Every structure is written in structure tokens, then in C-alpha cells.
Amino acid sequence: DADVTQTPRNRITKTGKRIMLECSQTKGHDRMYWYRQDPGLGLRLIYYSFDVKDINKGEISDGYSVSRQAQAKFSLSLESAIPNQTALYFCATSDHIGKEAFFGQGTRLTVV
Amino acid sequence: DAKTTQPTSMDCAEGRAANLPCNHSTISGNEYVYWYRQIHSQGPQYIIHGLKNNETNEMASLIITEDRKSSTLILPHATLRDTAVYYCIVRVPLAGGGADGLTFGKGTHLIIQP
User: What 3-state DSSP class applies to A99?
Assistant: First the structure.
């Protein structure tokens, strides 16, 4: 089983719909992150969390919200999806020493 | 975070060493150099990181110049499976010493030729 699991792997949704992307990890890490990647571009940080009581905005948080339900779970929500949120979304984790981040396999989201 | 400059793409013959350069001329004294790679739309994979000393692990070697303004990632014997986008990231770890909030640029698309 993967250390970092994202669900769903693919999703098509309509403009204006609320959608939640889920991430769970078995690494036992405190720190979790959500990134998005657009075609031909690098990853950009949306939100990150150092523990269940800590949520921080990243570079591009507008239009997104997150919930850290437990140490192992970090979900990303689009309250009212819009087409320019069509992208590949990655969840990642790292421990408090954090020499490396572990990424999930990604969720491909299409907003039509 | 210091900005990095990497070539857009590089080719390397299978079995040869792949040397990927990265310029980070504005790096500050407490910023680390990290390398990740991303194989076609998969999640990025950590390769190696360093502060000022050269580093080696089972995947690669990292050579950092003495003035720390540039570095080179070396894949000693490239295989077809090493074809990927390689990201050089310079980052001050956030509170707690973690590799947090990595900022990924466009990276170098390394193509290993058979």
C-alpha cells in the first residue's frame, strides 16, 4: 500500500459544485501539504499543516479550504469549483525533521 | 527563498552519467539545496539534499560549489527510467527544521536516450 493515498484519482465536476479531495498517510508524519500543478508548470503550494491544530495558507490558497481531521488525514475542498481550478493536485507529508517530503500519486481534477 | 535557474531540457545516453546543473546565485547561508524528480505526472520523488558539503546516496550525488552559488546533480549511470523532470529547490526549512512548503519551478526535463 502507498504511504500517501489520495482519493479520488480522477474527477470531473461542474462549475459551482463543491468538491473534496482526500489524503491519508501511513507515515506517521506531523506535516501535510496540498499542491497543485498546471500543465508545463511546477508545483505550487496551496495549504500546509504542521499538526491537527495548525493550518497555514500557501502561495495560492484563494478558492480553497482544508481540514486536518486527524494526524493521518488532510482534505482539500473547493467550495465552488471554477474551470481554472482544473489541475493535478498532490498531497505530501514530511516529519518534523523533514529531510524529504513524500508525495501521493495525485488527483486529476477537471472542472467543466 | 532563493531563485534557481535550470536548463529547460537535457539529453543523456543510457549508461552514461547525467549531470544536471542548477544556479542559485542569491542563496543565503542557511538555505539548503534539495533535488526532486517527477516521472510523467506521478508524485514528485525526493532525491537528495545538502547545505554546503557534497552528498551521495543510493540514487545520486550532489556537488555544491564552494561559494554555494551553483550545484550539480549527478546520476552516475542513467537508465531509461531516469527520464523525468528534475527540480532544484533552494529553501530555508521552516520552524522545526523541516523541508516545508517546497517551491517547485519548471525544472529540467531529462531525456535518457537508448
Answer: coil
